[in-house]
Amino acid sequence: MKVRPRSERAGRWSAREVGTLFRRLARENPAPTTELHYASPFELLVAVLLSAQTTDQAVNRATATLFPVAQDPEALLALGPEALAGHLRGLGLFRTKTRHLMATSRLLLERFGGAVPQSRAALMQLPGIGRKSANVILNTLTAAGTIAVDTHVFRVANRTGLAPGTTPRAVETRLDECVPDRYRSRAHHWLVLHGRYVCQARKPRCPECRIRDLCRFQDKTPPDPREASRRGSGATGRQPARAWSRHRPR
Ligand code: SF4
Fold first, then answer.
1. Segments forming the whole domain that contains residue 185
2. What residue spans of the chain are helical by DSSP H?
3. Which of 59, 87, 108, 202 lies in disulfide reach of 66, CB 3.0 to 4.6 Å?
4. Domain tally for the chain?
5. Each residue of 95-109: pLDDT tens digit?
Protein backbone atom coordinates (compact mmCIF):
# COMPACT_ATOMS: atom_id res chain seq x y z
CA MET A 1 0.00 0.00 0.00
CA LYS A 2 1.31 3.43 -0.94
CA VAL A 3 1.74 5.64 2.11
CA ARG A 4 0.91 9.29 1.57
CA PRO A 5 3.70 11.59 2.83
CA ARG A 6 2.52 13.58 5.83
CA SER A 7 3.06 16.90 4.07
CA GLU A 8 0.67 15.86 1.30
CA ARG A 9 -2.36 14.99 3.37
CA ALA A 10 -5.48 16.16 1.62
CA GLY A 11 -9.22 15.83 1.67
CA ARG A 12 -11.56 15.28 4.55
CA TRP A 13 -10.02 14.54 7.94
CA SER A 14 -10.43 10.99 9.18
CA ALA A 15 -11.79 10.37 12.67
CA ARG A 16 -8.34 9.16 13.62
CA GLU A 17 -6.71 12.42 12.49
CA VAL A 18 -9.29 14.49 14.38
CA GLY A 19 -8.55 12.44 17.49
CA THR A 20 -4.81 13.04 17.01
CA LEU A 21 -5.36 16.79 16.67
CA PHE A 22 -7.32 17.11 19.90
CA ARG A 23 -5.04 14.74 21.80
CA ARG A 24 -2.10 17.00 20.95
CA LEU A 25 -3.99 20.16 21.93
CA ALA A 26 -5.11 18.50 25.16
CA ARG A 27 -1.55 17.48 26.00
CA GLU A 28 -0.42 21.08 25.48
CA ASN A 29 -3.21 22.72 27.48
CA PRO A 30 -5.50 20.27 29.31
CA ALA A 31 -7.93 22.87 30.67
CA PRO A 32 -8.28 25.75 28.21
CA THR A 33 -10.68 28.54 29.03
CA THR A 34 -11.61 32.05 28.01
CA GLU A 35 -9.08 34.85 28.41
CA LEU A 36 -11.84 37.25 29.41
CA HIS A 37 -11.80 38.14 33.10
CA TYR A 38 -15.05 37.53 35.00
CA ALA A 39 -16.21 36.37 38.40
CA SER A 40 -19.92 35.61 37.81
CA PRO A 41 -22.26 34.63 34.96
CA PHE A 42 -23.37 38.28 34.66
CA GLU A 43 -19.79 39.49 34.35
CA LEU A 44 -19.10 36.83 31.71
CA LEU A 45 -22.17 37.97 29.76
CA VAL A 46 -20.99 41.59 29.93
CA ALA A 47 -17.44 40.69 28.90
CA VAL A 48 -18.61 38.57 25.95
CA LEU A 49 -20.98 41.32 24.78
CA LEU A 50 -18.13 43.83 24.94
CA SER A 51 -15.70 41.56 23.08
CA ALA A 52 -17.28 42.03 19.64
CA GLN A 53 -14.62 43.38 17.29
CA THR A 54 -12.34 44.08 20.28
CA THR A 55 -9.45 42.20 21.84
CA ASP A 56 -9.92 40.37 25.12
CA GLN A 57 -7.14 42.51 26.60
CA ALA A 58 -9.04 45.72 25.80
CA VAL A 59 -12.22 44.24 27.31
CA ASN A 60 -10.33 43.23 30.45
CA ARG A 61 -9.00 46.77 30.83
CA ALA A 62 -12.53 48.19 30.57
CA THR A 63 -14.14 45.67 32.91
CA ALA A 64 -11.37 46.17 35.51
CA THR A 65 -12.96 49.54 36.30
CA LEU A 66 -16.55 48.59 35.42
CA PHE A 67 -17.10 45.41 37.43
CA PRO A 68 -16.28 46.91 40.86
CA VAL A 69 -19.23 49.31 40.37
CA ALA A 70 -21.58 47.16 38.23
CA GLN A 71 -21.51 43.58 39.40
CA ASP A 72 -25.18 42.85 38.60
CA PRO A 73 -27.93 44.19 36.29
CA GLU A 74 -29.37 46.55 38.92
CA ALA A 75 -26.02 48.15 39.62
CA LEU A 76 -25.26 48.50 35.93
CA LEU A 77 -28.62 50.19 35.26
CA ALA A 78 -28.08 52.48 38.24
CA LEU A 79 -24.84 53.70 36.68
CA GLY A 80 -26.75 55.21 33.77
CA PRO A 81 -25.63 55.36 30.14
CA GLU A 82 -23.15 58.27 30.45
CA ALA A 83 -21.18 56.77 33.32
CA LEU A 84 -21.28 53.36 31.63
CA ALA A 85 -19.98 54.83 28.37
CA GLY A 86 -17.13 56.37 30.35
CA HIS A 87 -15.91 52.88 31.29
CA LEU A 88 -16.27 51.60 27.71
CA ARG A 89 -14.75 54.55 25.86
CA GLY A 90 -11.58 52.63 24.92
CA LEU A 91 -13.56 49.94 23.07
CA GLY A 92 -14.73 49.97 19.48
CA LEU A 93 -18.48 50.60 19.04
CA PHE A 94 -18.68 51.72 22.66
CA ARG A 95 -21.87 53.74 22.12
CA THR A 96 -23.68 50.72 20.65
CA LYS A 97 -22.30 48.46 23.38
CA THR A 98 -23.49 50.94 26.02
CA ARG A 99 -27.01 50.82 24.60
CA HIS A 100 -26.96 47.03 24.38
CA LEU A 101 -25.71 46.63 27.96
CA MET A 102 -28.38 48.92 29.34
CA ALA A 103 -31.13 47.13 27.41
CA THR A 104 -29.74 43.68 28.26
CA SER A 105 -29.64 44.49 31.98
CA ARG A 106 -33.23 45.70 31.83
CA LEU A 107 -34.36 42.50 30.08
CA LEU A 108 -32.47 40.29 32.52
CA LEU A 109 -34.45 41.88 35.35
CA GLU A 110 -37.81 41.87 33.54
CA ARG A 111 -37.72 38.36 32.06
CA PHE A 112 -35.13 36.31 33.93
CA GLY A 113 -35.20 37.54 37.52
CA GLY A 114 -31.80 39.15 37.09
CA ALA A 115 -30.08 35.83 36.28
CA VAL A 116 -28.25 34.91 33.08
CA PRO A 117 -30.42 32.41 31.17
CA GLN A 118 -28.80 29.14 30.18
CA SER A 119 -30.38 28.39 26.83
CA ARG A 120 -29.28 29.65 23.45
CA ALA A 121 -32.76 30.85 22.51
CA ALA A 122 -33.11 32.89 25.69
CA LEU A 123 -29.61 34.36 25.46
CA MET A 124 -30.26 35.41 21.88
CA GLN A 125 -33.21 37.54 23.04
CA LEU A 126 -30.70 39.85 24.71
CA PRO A 127 -29.54 42.87 22.71
CA GLY A 128 -25.93 42.45 21.56
CA ILE A 129 -25.94 38.67 22.02
CA GLY A 130 -25.96 36.69 18.77
CA ARG A 131 -25.45 32.99 18.20
CA LYS A 132 -21.66 33.11 18.57
CA SER A 133 -21.81 35.02 21.86
CA ALA A 134 -24.57 32.76 23.17
CA ASN A 135 -22.44 29.71 22.34
CA VAL A 136 -19.41 31.18 24.12
CA ILE A 137 -21.50 31.85 27.24
CA LEU A 138 -23.10 28.39 27.21
CA ASN A 139 -19.76 26.70 26.60
CA THR A 140 -18.18 28.51 29.53
CA LEU A 141 -21.06 28.28 32.01
CA THR A 142 -22.55 24.88 31.24
CA ALA A 143 -21.55 21.43 30.07
CA ALA A 144 -23.44 21.95 26.83
CA GLY A 145 -20.32 21.57 24.68
CA THR A 146 -21.36 24.29 22.24
CA ILE A 147 -18.67 25.32 19.78
CA ALA A 148 -18.72 29.04 19.08
CA VAL A 149 -17.25 30.03 15.73
CA ASP A 150 -15.46 33.35 15.99
CA THR A 151 -12.94 34.77 13.54
CA HIS A 152 -10.12 32.53 14.87
CA VAL A 153 -12.13 29.32 14.84
CA PHE A 154 -13.46 30.15 11.35
CA ARG A 155 -9.93 30.67 10.01
CA VAL A 156 -8.40 27.58 11.63
CA ALA A 157 -11.31 25.33 10.61
CA ASN A 158 -11.03 26.45 6.98
CA ARG A 159 -7.25 26.61 6.65
CA THR A 160 -6.65 23.23 8.18
CA GLY A 161 -9.57 21.69 6.30
CA LEU A 162 -10.91 20.32 9.60
CA ALA A 163 -14.36 21.87 9.14
CA PRO A 164 -14.52 23.96 5.98
CA GLY A 165 -17.49 26.24 5.43
CA THR A 166 -18.34 29.59 3.90
CA THR A 167 -20.29 30.83 6.93
CA PRO A 168 -19.73 30.54 10.69
CA ARG A 169 -22.93 28.48 10.93
CA ALA A 170 -21.66 26.00 8.31
CA VAL A 171 -18.35 25.65 10.17
CA GLU A 172 -20.20 25.17 13.46
CA THR A 173 -22.26 22.37 11.92
CA ARG A 174 -19.15 20.62 10.57
CA LEU A 175 -17.40 20.93 13.94
CA ASP A 176 -20.48 19.56 15.69
CA GLU A 177 -20.27 16.53 13.39
CA CYS A 178 -16.56 15.81 13.70
CA VAL A 179 -15.40 16.78 17.21
CA PRO A 180 -15.46 13.75 19.53
CA ASP A 181 -17.74 14.13 22.57
CA ARG A 182 -14.91 13.97 25.06
CA TYR A 183 -13.27 17.07 23.52
CA ARG A 184 -16.40 19.09 22.76
CA SER A 185 -16.47 21.39 25.78
CA ARG A 186 -12.82 22.38 25.23
CA ALA A 187 -12.69 22.44 21.41
CA HIS A 188 -13.81 26.07 21.08
CA HIS A 189 -11.07 27.34 23.40
CA TRP A 190 -8.34 25.21 21.82
CA LEU A 191 -9.20 26.40 18.34
CA VAL A 192 -9.46 30.05 19.44
CA LEU A 193 -6.07 29.89 21.14
CA HIS A 194 -4.49 28.07 18.22
CA GLY A 195 -5.77 30.76 15.86
CA ARG A 196 -4.77 33.62 18.14
CA TYR A 197 -1.22 32.52 18.88
CA VAL A 198 -0.14 30.04 16.17
CA CYS A 199 -2.34 30.01 13.09
CA GLN A 200 -2.38 33.79 12.94
CA ALA A 201 -4.27 35.61 10.21
CA ARG A 202 -1.46 37.40 8.39
CA LYS A 203 1.43 34.99 8.87
CA PRO A 204 0.64 31.59 10.35
CA ARG A 205 3.51 30.14 12.35
CA CYS A 206 3.54 26.89 10.39
CA PRO A 207 7.19 25.92 11.00
CA GLU A 208 6.46 25.79 14.74
CA CYS A 209 2.92 24.44 14.51
CA ARG A 210 2.25 21.17 16.32
CA ILE A 211 -0.40 20.08 13.83
CA ARG A 212 1.30 21.01 10.57
CA ASP A 213 1.56 17.36 9.52
CA LEU A 214 -2.25 17.10 9.74
CA CYS A 215 -3.08 20.52 8.29
CA ARG A 216 -4.34 20.72 4.68
CA PHE A 217 -3.36 24.39 4.13
CA GLN A 218 -1.50 24.56 0.81
CA ASP A 219 0.33 27.84 1.46
CA LYS A 220 2.05 27.07 4.73
CA THR A 221 4.60 29.61 5.90
CA PRO A 222 8.04 28.21 4.97
CA PRO A 223 10.77 27.91 7.60
CA ASP A 224 12.94 30.98 8.11
CA PRO A 225 16.20 30.21 6.17
CA ARG A 226 18.30 31.75 8.97
CA GLU A 227 16.57 29.45 11.43
CA ALA A 228 17.18 26.46 9.16
CA SER A 229 20.87 27.27 8.84
CA ARG A 230 21.17 27.69 12.62
CA ARG A 231 19.64 24.26 13.03
CA GLY A 232 21.99 22.86 10.39
CA SER A 233 24.95 24.24 12.33
CA GLY A 234 23.74 22.48 15.46
CA ALA A 235 22.43 25.57 17.24
CA THR A 236 19.27 25.11 19.28
CA GLY A 237 16.24 25.89 17.12
CA ARG A 238 13.01 27.53 18.24
CA GLN A 239 10.68 25.31 20.12
CA PRO A 240 7.29 24.38 18.68
CA ALA A 241 4.77 27.16 19.17
CA ARG A 242 3.14 27.02 22.55
CA ALA A 243 2.74 30.72 23.13
CA TRP A 244 -0.93 30.30 23.89
CA SER A 245 -0.29 27.96 26.76
CA ARG A 246 1.45 30.88 28.53
CA HIS A 247 -1.58 33.12 28.11
CA ARG A 248 -3.76 31.60 30.75
CA PRO A 249 -6.36 33.86 32.29
CA ARG A 250 -6.01 34.82 35.90
S1 SF4 B 1 0.34 24.41 9.71
FE2 SF4 B 1 0.11 26.63 9.45
S3 SF4 B 1 -1.86 26.90 8.46
FE4 SF4 B 1 -1.82 24.83 9.31
S5 SF4 B 1 -2.74 25.02 11.37
FE6 SF4 B 1 -0.55 25.20 11.61
S7 SF4 B 1 -0.16 27.40 11.56
FE8 SF4 B 1 -2.20 27.07 10.65
1. 1-30+147-231+239-250
2. 15-28, 41-50, 56-66, 73-79, 81-88, 94-112, 120-123, 131-141, 151-160, 168-178, 184-197, 225-232
3. 87
4. 2
5. 999 999 999 999 999
Residues 113 and 24 in one domain: no
Q: Specify the pLDDT at position 145.
A: 87
User: Final residue of a domain: which of 85, 111, 141?
Assistant: 141
Last residue of some domain: 141, 175, 210? 141
119 pLDDT above the threshold of 90:
yes
**From atom 1 of ligand 1, which residue's Cα is the shortest distance away?**
212
Sign of CA dihedral 142, 145, 149, 153: positive
193 within a domain of the structure (yes/no): yes
Say which CATH number the domain at 243 has. 1.10.1670.10
Task: Work out the angle between the directed axes of helices 131-141 and 168-178 (0-180°, nearest 10).
Answer: 30
* pTM over 0.85, yes/no: no
| Cβ 50 vs Cβ 59: under 8 Å | yes
Q: What is the pLDDT of residues 16-54, one digit of tens each?
A: 999 999 999 999 999 998 999 999 999 999 999 999 989
Pocket of ligand 1 (CB under 6 A): 159-160, 198-199, 204-206, 209, 211-212, 215, 217, 220
Ligand 1 binding pocket mutation candidate from 220, 224, 238, 244 (most atoms within 8 A of CB):
220
Identify whether 220 is a catalytic site residue: no
Is position 35 within any domain?
A: no
pLDDT of residue 237: 43
